[in-house]
Amino acid sequence: MDPFIDFGREIYIPWRILSGEHPGRDFIHPYGPLSVYFNAGLFAVFGVSIRTLVVANLAIFAVIVVGLFTLVRRSFGFLPAAVATLVCIAVFGFPHYWGVNNYTYAAPYSHEATHGMLLLIGLLVWLGRPRFMGDVRDGLVAGGLCGLGCLTKTEYVVVAAALWVLATVRVARAGQRLGPWWAGGCAGYAAIFASAWLLLSSVVGPVVALKSATNAVTAPFRFRAYSTSTHVLHFLGADHPLENFQTIARWSGSTIGVFAALVILALVAGRTRQRTVVVGCAALGLGLAGWVAWRVDWVFCGSAFPILLVIGATLLGRNLWKFGIGPARPGGGRRWNELLHFVAAIGLLARMAFDPTISHYGFFQAMLAGTWLCGFLLGEFPALGRSATAQAMLRGWLAAVIGIGAVALVLRSRQFYAVKQTSMGEGGDRILGFDPKVYPLPEMWERIRQHIANTTAASASVLVIPEGLTINYWTRRKHPLPVTDLLPATLALANPPVTEALMTSPPDVVVLVSRNMGEFGFASYGQDDETRRLLEWVSSRYAVERTEGGQPFAPPNLGVWVLRLKSQ
């Protein structure tokens, strides 16, 4: 995991919960309360360490993989499900496609993302059961899973609502009464929400508990300054929509051209009895598929997802119109599971609608789209070949493309993992960062950790600017503010403003660390009014105690500086 960005929050907040602090009252937390309290429970039972979370996360991912295999097998059959599951593990499970590595199921930037995925997969598997009847029991379980999902991230709230509506339509079209389905669903959802609210009320009071329990639903509206910030728009792809649309268009055109060529070759081979022609088409198709797959920069393959999903939606829509999804219809259960998976995939991918990617947030937001496409390309798309020969060729060519792409992405990840040789932290909290010859900041970070642990009292407060709660967690020193980082998008959430709050209660130690500010639209930290005011205040009240590297906020310098409060 990355020791500077995001992941520190994932270990710091659960640790502080064990000390009596709580989101909503002591922290501004942008997500629902389920994950932080679940992780705090793991810490309480198994010990406070990063290792505790990683082991739990691997177990959770194993359940996700089994559920995903079940879902895809119901939709497309065994072979497509096996391939899709392997792609999930290799491409989306533990990717390291760029320098920052907070986007894996072992150590995610947000546990709400992975816990929410587990609940969503559970909901999909439950709704897709052959015996799903839309009765009280079905509604009770589905409502409970929806309720738990609403305690994670906003994306899962939206997707769960869409799946609930879809299931309601299916129950109605099957000629069954909606009353039992809705009664069970409302009871399940209410039980989860009431339990969460009552438990939170016991520690933070009813009003704060209500805000915390509904945070995944209301946060985008309550924290509009964050939701509409350049930072968030960047990951949506809305900061440069025209440029992103052009990228999607290029990938779409190339994808359509390659797929059309493969279909034509398959049709030619399927309509002739001349073995030479068949072998020639097979060789040409395999060569084209292999050449394309090897030439593609696979880390950007998410740009082709929209056009592939459009093709898939067209064929799925035709089948739904022609055959339906009723339990009495031949293949109705298969099409129903395919539709459920597709709707969930579209719902999650919408967060990156203008810039779809398998990297960064794509490890969970593009995972369902990627696995649905694997199932579709191997299970449904080959039907365009009509004859058995043509279908077998298409399936083989597409399997080669997917396999080569997955291998290429694994090799890319290995390049980054291989140069992580710098040890940071101790015992169960030990992680590996980049070798200093590649990126010197982790080595500096470890020396600063040791310095703070050895020279500050256990009761001291440490503020890392702009972010780096791993230092607070590793040294077990308190972070003094309700906002968990001091980046421009987050500072807008602080009330009172951060600088005013610090004047009232200044931290004992301040750590300045280099941070790439490109996603926020700045060349370096301190270029906007609020961060400049903050750094000016720090400069006036603190003296430099130790330096590692160059001035942290003067690119291209990299550095970590420790400052201590001046004597009054």
Question: Could you walk me through the main structural features you see in this protein, from its secondary elements to its overall organization?
Answer:
The protein has 568 residues and is mainly alpha-helical. The protein is built from 24 helices and 6 strands. The protein has a 4-stranded mixed sheet with strand order 3-4-6-5. 62% of the residues lie in helices and 6% in strands.
Low-confidence stretches: none
What is the topology, as strand order, of the major beta sheet? 3-4-6-5
**Average pLDDT:** 92
Number of helical segments with 4 or more residues = 24
Count of individual beta strands: 6
The sequence of SSEs as H and E is HHHHHHHHHHHHHHHHHHHEEHEHHHEHEE
Q: Assign a percent range to the helix content.
A: 55-70%
Cα end-to-end separation: 39 Å
* Strand-pairing-aware structural class: mainly alpha
